[in-house]
Structures are given as structure tokens and as C-alpha cells.
Design goal:
With 614 residues, the protein is of the alpha/beta class. The chain has 18 helices and 25 strands.
Length: 614
């Protein structure tokens, strides 16, 4: 289906919006009247600009407060409409959106509304223009789509149809099944927007919190499917009022917008994309820094072994159990200090994963590759983090680990260099016991304007499932947090927005490492002389009041700075290293079926980090 977007959904002047829309790959636009009125381009120039960019002008909007009014007001409204028709002719637009009236002089009289809308449609038809009548969710007398349709049906004019808007329908809890009762040829336009589920005034909800499909709480797929089944043949068009989008760059927002429509088409059964190759686990986490010595010290304290180095890149491989961390000294100029720049995910079909990413506007990142390097494609998330599609040490696919050569293990006391076996080397050549099993989850703090975009990327490109957003208390504001994960929990990623100023240094990232014995793992860190994040004694007093832990167990947790949480499914214990640059590590132990991340402890952890990193 054709895809369109309202210019009000993007930031910047109209000319920049049109360029961003066309570059992203849209077929058309809705021209929002304020964008035309506030810009230097004449309607003719806008028409030519759209033609040059290959964009159709699918709709001109909005025309407000027209119907069910006294005769003197109607005369003024018709004069106003005639002027709009002239502008539309100059634009080359042939469809005008008319919103249900909110004017205090309008009356609750469907017959009068139908009569006046028929008169408007008659005037419009003389200009080759059609009228799409839309029920605003806060309309004075008409606020539901079925009511708007009854008026359109009563008016019975070929140039008058209805516009369906997903926000106005779903925000009121209306059932989209009734769309089936509307003939497809009378559905002149379909506008789409998602929104987080909120208890607030619907007008304010609409004006500030709409988002692209898949980023909120509405189920848009049944509504779209019902509209298409009814016979609708127009475009899928986005109309999103969002304070963040209106401040973010138009180019990236337009790409995110089109991606949302592609994924919505798929979920509504209107198109077929390569199926998501849902990752089963983490292959590696890659940290980049000019000086990796502080990171080496922390990894050694955690029990990791430096096992290999890349054959031609400045990259080291550190391993423990199935947890792998890459240290890269090839610093990119846009990164400050140690930073998590790439994540490898274990993928059942890397080629299919890359094809799907390309289809939903996440192109494979160009990379330098030697002739003997294993095939390894990556795509960039909105925050710039690269995701590599891996098949580690599997017989059916070349493994990225083949691009690394072993480094000699450090000799154990009483041994000569070279005496250790490969088995011992991969176990651990600093500490003899693997206490880390794998990477449990990774947390990425997003730029302030890309949280919703990141959520959609991880769901649509990687095939992860999203939890509801949470708001966590930080000493300097609120942290918005949302977890995305594979169904089996093999891959868990936590997306955050910090309240601090949006500087690189403020966007902390961390790698959570799974262990079956967090006390032993924490003691090992402490025994190396590496400190863990201190947690105030007040926390443990409260913990004892809430959970009545055994005194000895509580004392051990307090000694090591281990935080505790539990739910109906199990327990969660976790502690943290110091922060190096933008990165810190977390040790986690899950028991039973606990699937959370210790959100109840976030305020304590965040306060402790603020206290001890300055």
C-alpha cells in the first residue's frame, strides 16, 4: 500500500520535512496547514517541490469547526472553505480533512450537520476536491467514527466520505469491528498513530503523546486489517503529534516512521517480510577505548581470561564460561572514553536476519574485511550501537572466533610458560573456577529523542518482545526504562533514558553477567583489591524489614554490597562494579523463574553511583 505522513509529525521547515519524507521512501504527504502558512514557499512551489521529490500530496488539513452551526456562521465557514479550495488547487491537492466541530456555537443536530456537510461537498466538487469528515475524540457533538459515518451516510454526496483516525478511535475504546459496516469507497482516508496508555485528558494525550505504530499501547493491526477488508484503497498515513519528534532530526524520524508502517503492514497481514531470526543469546559485547587497561583490570577481577586477539585488528577476546567481551583500541572519534559500541547476538540464520534488517530500513553497516575473515554482518541501532548476527562455533556457519588467534596463557604458580592445556586456558588462567556463565543482559542508555525509536528497532529488526515502560527514581530526576527480550530470555536488553543532560558521558551502559554463586563471584572481585559499588546500610535495614532474611545471609549481602529482590517466581541478587568511562558491570544471580531486573533497587543503585563516581 502507498505510505504517507503528515508534515506535522516532523521537525523543521516544510522544505526540510519534504526532503526527509522523500529520502526515507514515503510515497506521499499530508500538508499540515501551519507548515504552509509559516513557510516562504508558495503553494505552487510546494507542489513543484513535491513533484521533484516524487511525493504525492494526499491530503490538506485541517479544516475545523464547520458543521451544525447557525446560518450566519455557515456563511462565514463557506467563504473560508472557498479560500482553502483555491489554495488546494494551487497545491494540486484534492482531498480536504474536515474535523468534527468543537465550536461552542455548533448544535447537536445530525440532520443539520449532514445538510451543511453536503453543501460543503457540493462546493468542493466544483473544484475537483473531496471532503474527508473525521470524528475528533473530543468533538463537541461528534466524537466517534461510527457517528461521523452516520452523518456522512445521511448527507449522501459522492464527494463526501469519512476519515478514520486510529488515535480518535482507540483512545475512546471504540471497537474497530464496526468499520466493516462502512463501504470501502466511502473511507476516503486512514490516519494512523499509536500512543502510550495514559489516564489523562484526551486532547492533551493526542497533542503531546502520540507516537508511531508499535511504539505505544494501542493494537493497530486489527484496525488496519478491518479497514482494508472493508475495501479501503488509499494510503496508510501517519499523523503524529509528539513533543519529542518535533525536536528531533526530521531525517531519522522519517526513517523510523516508515519502519513503523512496514512493521504494521506485516502485523496486519498485508505484506510479507523475512521472518525475524530471533536471537538465542549473546555472542559478545564489544568495548572500545584508547586505553583498555582499566577494563582489563576489572575483567581480571571478575575472573575473565584474555584468550585470543584478532588476526589484524587491535581487538582482544576475553572469556569466561559462555560470556565473551571484546576490547577494541581502535577508537572512533565520536566515542568518549570506554564505551560499549557493539553487541554480537547468536542468530539461527544470520543471512535472514540481515535481509529482514535491510527490508525494515536498517541497512548492513559497511565494514573493512580481510579475504579470510568470517562473514559477519552488523546493523546499527538508533544510538549507534552495532548488532552483529553471529553463529559462534556452529558447524553450519563460519564462526567469528576463527578470526582470532590464541594468546599464550599465563603460567600458574609452579608451571613453566606453555605448560597449560587449552582446556585450562579457556577455563580461566587467573582464577581456576568459572563463576560467570554468560551475559545475562545489557543495558543501553539512549539519546533523549530516540527511546521510542530504539524500542521499535529492537522489536522490529531483532524480533525481541517489549515490556511496559517503567519510571525509576534518580537523584536528579526520573529514568525511563523499557526491557526488550527474546521469549526464552536468552537475550535481554534494557533501554533507558537518563534525566541528566544528553552528553555522551551521561549515557551509561552496563553488562550484566550471570552467575550461580554471586557471593563467591563478589568475594573474588574483592580479593583482587577491586571495589564493588558500596550500598548504604539503610538499604539493608529496610530489606530486613521487607523480607526477613536470615541474619547471616543479610550480613553477607551487606558486606559485599549485594542487592536483593524477589517476586512470585523467584529471587534476584545483584551487585555492581565501579564505572569506567561510560561502562560498568553487574553480577546477577537469578533463582526460580524471576525474569525482572531488580527495578525496585534502581533508586538505591543510582544514588550510590552518583555518590561514588564524583
Amino acid at each position: 500500500m502507498r505510505k504517507s505522513i503528515a508534515t506535522v509529525s516532523l521537525s523543521g521547515p516544510l522544505s526540510e520535512k519534504l526532503t526527509a519524507v522523500a529520502t526515507a521512501g514515503f510515497d506521499g504527504v499530508e500538508i499540515f496547514e501551519n507548515d504552509l502558512l509559516g513557510g516562504p514557499l508558495s503553494p505552487e512551489e510546494v507542489r513543484l517541490r513535491c513533484a521533484d521529490l516524487g511525493l504525492g500530496i494526499d491530503l490538506y488539513q485541517p479544516f475545523r469547526d464547520f458543521e451544525a452551526v447557525p446560518a450566519d456562521v455557515l456563511a462565514c465557514n463557506l467563504r473560508r472553505a472557498e479560500r482553502k479550495f483555491t489554495v488546494m488547487e494551487r497545491l494540486g491537492a484534492d482531498l480536504l480533512l474536515v474535523c468534527s466541530s468543537v465550536a461552542p456555537e455548533s448544535v447537536d443536530d445530525d440532520a443539520l450537520a449532514a445538510e451543511q456537510l453536503r453543501l460543503l461537498a457540493d462546493r468542493a466538487a466544483a473544484h475537483g476536491i473531496r471532503i474527508a469528515y473525521e470524528a475528533l475524540a473530543w468533538g463537541r457533538h461528534v466524537s466517534t467514527y461510527d457517528h461521523a459515518w452516520r452523518i456522512v451516510e445521511q448527507a449522501d454526496h459522492p464527494a463526501l466520505g469519512t476519515c478514520l483516525d486510529s488515535f480518535h478511535i482507540l483512545s475512546r475504546g471504540s471497537d474497530p469491528k464496526g468499520i466493516a459496516d462502512i463501504p470501502g469507497e466511502k473511507i476516503f482516508f486512514l490516519q494512523l498513530a499509536d500512543a502510550p496508555l495514559m489516564a489523562m485528558d484526551v486532547l492533551q494525550w493526542s497533542r503531546h503523546y502520540r507516537c508511531f505504530p508499535g511504539q505505544g499501547g494501542f493494537d493497530l493491526a486489527p484496525l488496519v486489517a478491518a479497514t482494508v477488508r472493508a475495501g479501503y484503497q488509499g494510503p496508510l498515513s501517519l499523523e503524529v503529534f509528539n513533543d519529542v519528534f518535533r525536536q528531533a532530526g526530521a531525517a531519522s524520524t522519517a526513517v523510523d516512521a516508515l519502519r513503523s508502517l512496514l512493521l504494521l503492514e506485516e502485523s496486519a497481514g498485508l505484506s510479507t517480510l523475512p521472518a525475524a531470526a530471533v536471537p538465542s543469546g549473546f555472542a559478545f559485547a564489544e568495548l572500545t577505548a584508547a586505553d583498555t587497561e582499566p577494563l582489563r583490570g576489572i575483567l581480571q577481577a571478575l575472573g575473565f581470561a584474555h584468550t585470543a586477539r584478532h588476526t589484524w585488528k587491535p581487538v582482544e577476546l576475553w572469556e569466561q564460561g559462555e560470556a565473551r567481551v571484546l576490547l577494541n583500541t581502535g577508537v572512533s572519534g565520536r566515542r568518549q572514553g570506554p564505551a560499549l559500541t557493539a553487541i554480537g547476538v547468536e542468530t539461527p540464520d544470520p543471512a535472514r536476519a540481515a535481509r529482514r534488517a535491510e527490508e525494515v530500513l536498517a541497512p548492513v553497516v559497511p565494514r573493512r574485511r580481510a579475504p579470510h575473515d568470517a562473514p559477519l554482518d552488523a546493523v546499527a541501532a538508533p544510538d549507534g550501537t552495532e548488532f552483529f548476527f553471529c553463529r559462534t562455533k556452529q558447524p553450519d556457519h563460519p564462526s567469528w572466533t576463527g578470526d582470532f588467534t590464541d594468546v599464550p596463557p599465563r603460567a600458574l604458580p609452579g608451571q613453566e610458560p606453555g605448560e597449560q592445556s587449552a582446556t585450562i586456558r579457556h577455563t580461566n588462567h587467573t582464577n581456576h573456577t568459572n563463576l560467570i556463565n554468560n551475559i545475562d543482559h545489557i543495558a543501553l542508555t539512549q539519546p533523549w529523542h530516540q527511546f521510542d525509536e530504539a524500542s521499535l528497532f529492537h522489536r522490529g529488526v531483532l524480533g525481541l518482545e517489549a515490556d511496559d515502560s517503567l519510571y525509576l527514581a534518580d537523584p536528579y530526576g526520573l529514568v525511563r526504562s523499557r526491557a526488550v527480550a527474546s521469549p526464552d530470555g536468552g537475550v535481554r536488553i534494557v533501554l533507558n533514558i537518563a534525566p541528566a543532560p544528553d552528553a555522551e558521558g551521561a549515557r551509561l551502559q552496563h553488562i550484566a553477567l550471570a552467575t550461580d554463586d554471586i557471593v563467591a563471584a563478589a568475594r573474588r572481585v574483592r580479593e583482587t583489591g577491586t571495589s564493588l559499588l558500596p550500598i548504604p546500610a539503610n538499604y539493608y535495614d529496610d530489606l530486613d524489614a521487607r523480607h526477613e532474611l536470615e541474619p547471616e545471609h543479610l550480613a553477607t549481602l551487606a558486606e559485599l554490597g549485594i542487592l536483593y529482590d524477589r517476586d512470585e517466581n523467584g529471587e534476584f541478587l545483584h551487585c555492581y562494579t565501579a564505572t569506567v568511562g561510560r561502562v560498568f558491570f553487574e553480577l546477577v544471580q537469578r533463582t526460580g523463574g524471576y525474569r525482572g531486573y531488580g527495578a525496585g533497587n534502581a533508586a538505591v543503585r543510582l544514588a550510590a553511583q552518583h555518590l561514588h563516581q564524583h
